[in-house]
Amino acid sequence: MPSRILIFCSLFSFFFFSAALIKNISKLPMIYFVQIINNNLLTFQYEIINEECYLTICQSRYNQSAIFSHKLKATIHQPQYFPYAGFFHKLSLADIFVILDDAQYDKRFTNRNKIIATNDWIWITVPINKDHKFLPNIFVEINNNLKWKEVHWKKIYQSYANTKHFKLYRDYLHNLYKKEWNMLFDLDFETLKKTIDWLGIKIEIVRSSELKANGRSTERLVNICKEMGADTYVSGKDGRNYMDEKLFEKNNIKLEYQHYVYPQYQQHLSRSFVPDLSIIDMLANVGPDCMRLINETNSNLMELKH
What we know:
This protein is α/β, with parallel strands linked by helices. It has helices at 2-24, 64-68, 85-92, 148-160, 167-176, 184-199, 218-228, 245-250, 279-286, 290-297; strands spanning 30-37, 40-49, 52-59, 73-77, 96-99, 112-117, 120-125, 204-207, 232-235, 254-257, 302-303. The chain has a six-stranded mixed beta sheet. Strands 1-2-3 form a three-stranded antiparallel beta sheet, with helices on one face. The protein has a two-stranded antiparallel sheet with strand order 6-7. The longest helix is centred in the N-terminal third of the chain and has 23 residues, at 2-24.
């Protein structure tokens, strides 16, 4: 009972304090506050719609040390189909993952990835409607006239059924390929969230279509970071080739680049190690120790010095 009273009193006082503050800054579309109540980190989200204020209170998944040091790291990426382990290593370095569901479809890994086969690797590819290859990700339809689900499950099972840890993921994967999937993004989003859960990565996931940030290329990355309240952007190493680094500096956003070395492990069906395969390969061979292995193999990010 005392804990309930404490929570109620804290919420009551916090609400009136925040309401007074909102009267002075009501021009902002969304306002976030964070408070520790009864050892729980809670997010208070106020949204102004047509001059009406709406309050949402939920358990926060943000890192407490990041909140209290006023530092929040964001990473932004296209959706991918069971991406390689480096994708998830980058997520583990950030507090917020903004998934670009409204960006143009990218044929490289949005609908396909690589798995092991006998002495080699093979693609598993989700067929799409060919007329949709220039559309935003959320509008790309899967071509279900082709029996891709049966093919993917058969290839995955043949490659990994005899690995040490495949049994941990078998039922989910089997059921995944029994479901009806019409939109590619829905499939990618579901499998990404499940893999993040398997790996134990604590990160807030936001769809870019839910944000107001606009612009092209680096400008949009910066605007997303600003809208999310992030003062640091975590980029893959290839970001150096296309980003305008000075634009981050101009907006007081730190730029950090991921340094990733693919960890080696005993790989089923291969005499020599094959890197950069789908995360399915590492899960099946390494199991719950995937993130430990990834973190032990890799050093921390190097911050860009301006």
